[in-house]
Amino acid sequence: MITARLARPLSAEIGIMRHHQQIDALDSDGAQPDQISVVPILLAALLTFPLLAGCFSEWESHGGFLVGVKLLGVSSVPIFRR
Question: For the chain, what are the domain ranges?
């Protein structure tokens, strides 16, 4: 799911750059278009996806605790004895 959400805007951006001939201009200047357009997005994804996964995992455990203890009345002692 993450790769699909990352690939869709990336391919659209590259397609728009190809349509406006920006990739051809970068290539004619001697720059490498794949390093300019793809590498920064992939580096940002490598940094942010683990952080997002950690945040969502933490929120999920707190949400489960609140639902179990506060709404359903489950004892909180077994949760904290790990």
Answer: 2-57
